[in-house]
C-alpha cells in the first residue's frame, strides 16, 4: 500500500517534469479540455441563474393565478391568425364574468400601454403602464416599499393616481421621495400613491413589475388609449393552488356563456396559467442543457483524442527513457502509472484553466443573472478532466508499459 | 568460498528475421562466481550484448536454463524480472543511458525510488554512491552539463547504489577517449577489489586485460574461457574513497 502511494507520488513528479519540458505543447493539447470544462461550468452557472430568475419572477406574479386573455401564451395547437381573429375581451365581459364567478379570491382587468413618464428632468421612455382597478393588488403578491395601491374610490372614479415599480421610482426619484409627488404622462399629471418593493428579477424584463407603473384603467382609457383599441386581460386569483383547476373550469364555463358560444364551438379566448410558463421554461432550459452537454461532450471528446495523440507521441519520443527505467527496475504498472498520471495532470491543468475562464465568464453572467459558480459544477469539472485524462492516457500508457526493455533501449 | 552467482546451461537465443533464423546465441553454458571480474570478448555481432541482456534479466533465452544467485529465472514473470534487475543487477551501458532531464542525484536515486526507499534515505545513499565515483561536487548537474567520463561515472554510481549482486557493463568505454576509458577501468578494478562481481563486455583487447577471466565468443558460441596472468592491476592513486 505504502509502495503504491509512493509510486503515485513519484509518477506525479516525473509527469510534472515532463509537462514542464513541453509547456506549449501541453497547453495546446488541452484546448479541448479547456473549452469542454468552460462550457459545462458556464452552462450550469447560466442555467442556475435562469432557474433562479424565473422562479423569482414567477413567484412575484403569484402562483395561483389565471389570466383570461384573447391570446394564448403558448399557441400550442391554435394557429396565430385564428388567435388574431378572436374578439377582444371587453370591460363589459369582465363585469359579467366578475358577477358570475363564485370561486376566485379576486379578479381584475388589465390593459397595458407604452408611454413616456416624466418627473422634472428625469424621464423613463416606453415603459409599460398597466391600467387596472383596486382589486388588482389582491391578485398579486406585490408588496410596497412606500405608500399603497390605489383604492376602490380612486379606480372607480378614474382618478389621476399612479403606483410605480421600484426601478421606475428609482429612475424618476433618485432621492426616494416619490409618494405624493406628481409625475407627467403625455402632459397629464398623476399623483404617486405608492412604490412597489423590488422584485429583482431579470428574465421577466419589461414584464417585471419593477419596470411597470399602475394606473386606474378608466384613466388609461380616457387619455392614453381606447377600450376598443385592444383587448383586456382578466387576472384571476384562485384561493389556493388546489382550487386552480376548478377556478379555471368555472372561468371557461362563464366566458363561453358570456360569449354565447354553442356547444360545438371552440373557445374564442384562452385561460393562461403560469404552470404552463414554468413548463415552457423547463423546455427551453432543457434545450440549453442538451446543446451545452453536446458542446461539452464534443470538445471533451476532441480534447481526449488530442491528449491521446500527444501521449502516443510522448511515449514514442521517450522510448529510450522507458527502456532505461525498465532496465533499472521499473515495473509495468509503474510505467503505466507514470504515463496515466502525466495525461491526467495535463487534463487537470486544462480543467483548471477552463475553470478559470468559466469564473471570468460567471462574473459577466452575474451582471444579468443572479448566479455564481456552483460548488458541484467545480467538482464536476475536476472529475471530468481527471476522467478524460485517465481515459485518454490509458492506451498510450499501456503501449509504454508493455514495451520490451531491450528493444526500447536500442531505440534511437 | 566460491558462491555461484550466474549459472547458465545450454542457453540459446534465436531471432526470427523474415523466414530466416538468426542464432544470436547458439549454445552457451557458463558459471560465474561471486567477486569475479569477467570480460566477455568477441567481434561485433558475435552475441555479446545478447548474452549480456540475458544475464541481466532484460531478455529471456529461447531455450536453456538460467539460475541467478541459485534461483531459476527462466520462468519468471516480467514483474519478477524487473524486481531482480532493480535489486540485484547494476547496468552500465556504452551510451550511458541517463535520463537527460534529471540531475545526477536523481539519476542515481532512480533505482532506489523503484525499490520504494524513503526519500531522505535514498538521497543519502545516492549521494554516497556519487561520492564513491568521485562526483560529490556534481550531484546537481544534468547529464548535458557533464563530460562523457563523468556521465559514465554517474551511470556507475546508479549501478552501484542498490548494492547489487553483479555489475554488468556493455562496452562502458566505447564512447570514451583512451584516457577517460582507462580511468573508468581503474574504477571498475577498485570496485572489484571491494568485493563487487563485474562482467564487462568489450571488443578491445587492452580493456579486457583488466579482467581476471576472459570469455571469448564467436557466432553465438563460447570459443575460449581463460584466467589470465598478465592482468593489468591499476596502480597509482586510488579513484575510490577509502
Ligand atoms: N532483435 C533482434 N532481431 C534480430 N536479430 C538480432 C536482434 N538482436 C540481435 N540480433 C542479431 O544477433 C546477433 C548478435 O547481436 P549482438 O548480441 O548485439 O552482438 P554484439 O553485441 O556482439 O555486437 C547479431 O547478428 C544481430 O544482428
Ligand atoms: Mg553489442
List the defining traits of the structure above:
heterodimer; A: 412 residues; alpha+beta; six-stranded mixed beta barrel; 14 helices; 56% helix; 16% strand; B: 242 residues; alpha/beta; Rossmann fold; six-stranded mixed β-sheet; 7 helices; 10 strands; 32% helix; 28% strand; globular; binds adenosine-5'-diphosphate; binds magnesium ion
Report on the architecture of this protein.
The complex is a heterodimer of chains A (412) and B (242). By secondary structure, chain A is of the alpha+beta class. Chain A has 14 helices and ten strands. Chain A folds into two domains: 2-56 and 279-410, no CATH class; 87-268, no CATH class. Chain A has helices spanning 2-21, 23-29, 31-61, 80-85, 91-100, 152-156, 166-172, 217-223, 244-259, 274-317, 319-327, 332-365, 375-401, 405-410, and strands at 65-69, 106-119, 122-132, 144-147, 161-164, 182-185, 188-196, 212-216, 233-237, 270-273. A six-stranded mixed barrel of chain A has the order 2-3-8-5-7-6. In chain A, a hairpin with a 2-residue loop joins strand 6 and strand 7 (188-196). In chain A, helix 10 (274-317) packs parallel to helix 13 (375-401). With 242 residues, chain B is α/β, with parallel strands linked by helices. Chain B has a single domain, classed as 3-Layer(aba) Sandwich (Rossmann fold), CATH 3.40.50.300. In chain B, helix 6 links the parallel strand 7 (166-170) and strand 8. Chain B is globular, with a radius of gyration of 18 Å. Chains A and B meet through helix 1, helix 11, helix 12 and helix 14 of A and helix 2 and helix 3 of B. The structure holds adenosine-5'-diphosphate (ADP) and magnesium ion.
Amino acid at each position: 500500500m505504502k509502495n503504491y502511494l509512493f509510486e503515485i507520488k513519484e509518477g506525479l513528479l516525473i509527469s510534472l517534469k515532463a509537462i514542464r519540458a513541453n509547456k506549449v505543447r501541453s497547453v495546446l493539447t488541452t484546448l479541448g479540455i479547456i473549452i469542454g470544462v468552460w462550457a459545462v461550468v458556464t452552462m450550469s452557472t447560466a442555467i442556475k441563474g435562469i432557474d433562479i430568475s424565473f422562479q423569482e419572477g414567477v413567484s412575484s406574479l403569484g402562483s395561483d393565478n389565471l389570466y383570461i386573455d384573447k391570446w394564448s401564451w403558448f399557441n400550442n395547437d391554435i394557429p396565430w391568425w385564428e388567435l388574431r381573429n378572436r374578439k377582444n375581451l371587453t370591460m363589459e365581459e369582465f363585469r359579467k364574468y366578475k358577477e358570475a364567478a363564485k370561486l376566485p379570491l379576486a379578479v381584475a382587468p388589465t390593459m397595458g400601454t407604452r408611454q413616456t413618464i416624466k418627473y422634472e428632468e428625469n424621464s423613463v421612455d416606453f415603459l409599460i403602464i398597466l391600467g387596472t382597478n383596486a382589486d388588482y393588488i389582491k391578485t398579486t403578491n406585490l408588496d410596497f416599499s412606500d405608500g399603497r395601491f390605489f383604492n376602490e374610490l380612486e379606480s372607480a372614479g378614474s382618478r389621476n393616481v399612479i403606483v410605480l415599480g421600484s426601478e421606475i421610482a428609482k429612475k424618476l426619484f433618485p432621492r426616494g421621495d416619490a409618494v405624493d409627488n406628481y409625475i407627467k404622462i403625455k402632459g397629464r399629471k398623476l399623483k404617486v400613491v405608492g412604490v412597489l418593493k423590488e422584485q429583482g428579477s431579470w428574465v421577466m424584463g419589461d414584464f417585471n413589475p419593477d419596470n411597470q407603473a399602475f394606473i386606474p384603467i378608466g384613466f388609461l382609457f380616457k387619455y392614453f388609449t381606447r377600450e376598443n383599441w385592444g383587448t383586456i386581460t382578466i387576472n384571476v386569483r384562485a384561493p389556493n393552488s388546489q382550487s386552480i383547476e376548478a377556478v379555471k373550469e368555472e372561468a371557461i364555463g362563464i366566458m363561453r356563456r358570456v360569449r354565447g358560444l354553442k356547444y360545438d364551438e371552440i373557445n374564442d379566448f384562452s385561460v393562461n396559467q403560469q404552470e404552463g410558463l414554468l413548463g415552457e421554461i423547463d423546455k427551453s432550459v432543457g434545450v440549453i442543457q442538451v446543446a451545452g452537454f453536446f458542446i461539452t461532450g464534443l470538445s471533451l471528446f476532441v480534447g481526449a483524442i488530442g491528449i491521446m495523440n500527444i501521449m502516443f507521441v510522448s511515449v514514442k519520443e521517450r522510448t529510450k527513457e522507458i527502456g532505461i527505467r525498465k532496465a533499472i527496475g521499473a515495473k509495468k504498472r509503474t510505467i503505466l502509472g507514470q504515463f496515466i498520471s502525466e495525461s491526467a495532470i495535463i487534463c487537470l491543468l486544462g480543467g483548471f484553466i477552463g475553470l478559470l475562464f468559466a469564473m471570468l465568464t460567471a462574473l459577466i453572467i452575474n451582471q444579468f443573472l443572479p448566479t455564481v459558480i456552483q460548488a458541484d459544477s467545480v467538482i464536476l469539472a475536476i472529475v471530468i478532466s481527471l476522467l478524460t485524462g485517465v481515459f485518454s492516457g490509458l492506451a498510450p500508457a499501456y503501449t509504454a508499459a508493455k514495451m520490451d526493455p531491450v528493444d526500447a533501449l536500442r531505440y534511437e | 568460498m566460491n558462491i555461484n552467482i550466474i549459472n547458465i546451461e545450454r542457453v540459446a537465443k534465436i531471432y526470427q528475421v523474415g523466414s530466416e533464423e538468426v542464432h544470436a546465441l547458439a549454445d552457451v553454458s557458463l558459471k560465474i562466481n561471486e567477486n569475479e571480474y569477467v570480460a566477455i570478448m568477441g567481434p561485433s555481432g558475435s552475441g555479446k550484448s545478447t548474452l549480456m541482456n540475458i544475464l541481466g534479466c532484460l531478455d529471456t533465452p529461447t531455450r536453456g536454463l538460467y539460475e541467478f544467485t541459485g534461483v531459476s529465472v527462466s520462468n519468471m514473470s516480467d514483474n519478477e524480472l524487473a524486481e531482480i534487475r532493480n535489486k540485484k543487477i547494476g547496468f552500465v551501458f556504452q551510451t550511458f543511458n541517463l535520463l537527460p532531464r534529471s540531475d545526477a542525484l536523481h539519476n542515481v536515486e532512480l533505482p532506489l525510488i523503484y525499490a520504494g526507499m524513503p526519500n531522505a534515505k535514498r538521497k543519502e545513499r545516492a549521494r554516497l554512491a556519487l561520492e564513491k565515483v568521485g562526483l560529490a561536487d556534481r550531484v546537481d548537474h544534468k547529464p548535458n552539463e557533464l563530460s562523457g567520463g563523468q556521465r559514465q561515472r554517474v551511470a556507475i554510481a546508479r549501478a552501484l547504489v542498490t548494492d547489487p549482486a553483479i555489475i554488468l557493463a556493455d562496452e562502458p568505454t566505447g564512447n570514451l577517449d583512451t584516457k577517460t576509458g582507462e580511468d573508468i577501468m581503474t574504477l571498475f578494478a577498485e570496485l572489484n577489489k571491494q568485493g563487487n562481481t563485474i562482467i564487462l563486455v568489450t571488443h578491445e583487447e587492452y580493456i579486457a586485460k583488466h579482467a581476471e577471466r576472459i570469455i571469448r565468443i564467436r557466432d553465438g558460441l563460447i570459443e575460449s574461457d581463460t584466467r589470465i596472468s598478465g592482468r593489468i592491476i591499476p596502480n597509482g592513486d586510488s579513484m575510490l574513497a577509502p
